[in-house]
């Protein structure tokens, strides 16, 4: 396949294919921009249907990281790794050690951490073969780091709250929030929403995941195919990307969308469609930056717990400011966010090829 012709290729600096014969490791690391510093972003393990799907995901996710890191004020660029394989059956310590060697070969221009399908234990194996890794258990003073998911959930919660304040002029107490996906982030988000007095409606393809949240937080369970259309006040997509598209948007049951999933918009045009449909959308990479704020702080080793909390809480006002500008200019919030981010990475004059 011709990488430079893939629709999501957006002037990426590096697309690196890695392979290890012994462990069967196969995947790609994409560096979108290192203008603000080394590319920092997680590693996803997924059963991709084809190499093309894996490369497209790496390209889209790494661009999202460039934007996310820039808007969060971090001195890092955007990078992401994807491993082709089934995270339920294909993992081994040796495979992640081999992945660590692939990261190490890039000499620090890419720093890795967890993403979908990859956990702290896997990153501990990566740390055996490279120092360019974060989201691990460290014996340091101050901020300890580790699993970024609870931090991501906290940031999403703040962004969701800001979107609710902006559009409904109230707090989340008493509102119904539909959460799609109850994995590491979705579960923690459900917990925060419950504590804030929201009513939960949840869906996951895993029966255990929904039953746990129903039992602990009294959430109502709906089938995965019904969560997007459920008439809730807020929809929080916390599973996979491209859930907001021309087929789903006209059927959405909520008027506010704010969730953790990366790349929620299938295309740039879907941001416009949301706006035309009167739906307030809190751009994914703006509100899901809590995890990267935590793992970069852990990597640098100088921040305290209080510093990290403070930076995560800034996601709320940042979201509000963005939604206000979008309203003033009558433009989709996602486009405003993309523009701000491209300016920060020195790409404001390049044409963006697809949705971030
Ligand atoms: P995870 O793998 O722990 O959880 C994903 C959950 O979604 C799983 O429980 C899975 O069964 C469920 N799911 C998959 N397809 C579904 C469907 N069609 N309908 C309903 N549920 C479905 O992943 P994690 O870490 O919670 O991440 C969730 C999203 O947030 C991903 O898009 C990820 O890229 C994004 N994100 C995660 C961060 C983190 O700190 N973990 C940071 C920033 C973004």
Query: Helical element count?
Result: 12
- According to DSSP, the number of beta strands is 12
The string of secondary-structure elements, in order, is EEEEHEHEHHEHEHEEEHEHHHHH
Class by SSE composition: alpha/beta
Mean pLDDT: 95
Poorly predicted tracts of residues: none
Shape: globular
Using only C-alpha atoms, the radius of gyration works out to: 19 Å
Q: Which small molecules are bound?
A: 1,4-dihydronicotinamide adenine dinucleotide
| Sheet with the most strands, sense and barrel status | 6 strands, mixed
Cα(first) to Cα(last) distance is 22 Å
Q: What helical percentage do the residues reach?
A: 40-55%
In percent terms, what proportion of residues is strand? 5-15%
Concise description?
The chain is of the alpha/beta class and 356 residues long.
Topology:
Blueprint: E1 14-20, E2 25-33, E3 39-40, E4 43-46, H1 51-71, E5 77-84, H2 93-105, E6 110-111, H3 120-126, H4 149-168, E7 176-180, H5 184-195, E8 199-203, H6 207-217, E9 220-221, E10 234-237, E11 256-257, H7 268-276, E12 280-281, H8 284-287, H9 290-300, H10 305-313, H11 315-329, H12 333-344
Parallel strand pairs: 3-5, 3-6, 4-5, 7-8, 7-10, 8-9, 10-11, 11-12
Antiparallel strand pairs: 1-2, 2-5
Helix pairs in contact: 1-12, 2-3, 4-5, 4-9, 4-11, 11-12
Bound molecules: 1,4-dihydronicotinamide adenine dinucleotide.
1,4-dihydronicotinamide adenine dinucleotide binds at residues 115-117, 148-149, 152, 180-186, 203-206, 209, 224, 238-240, 260-262, 288, 291.
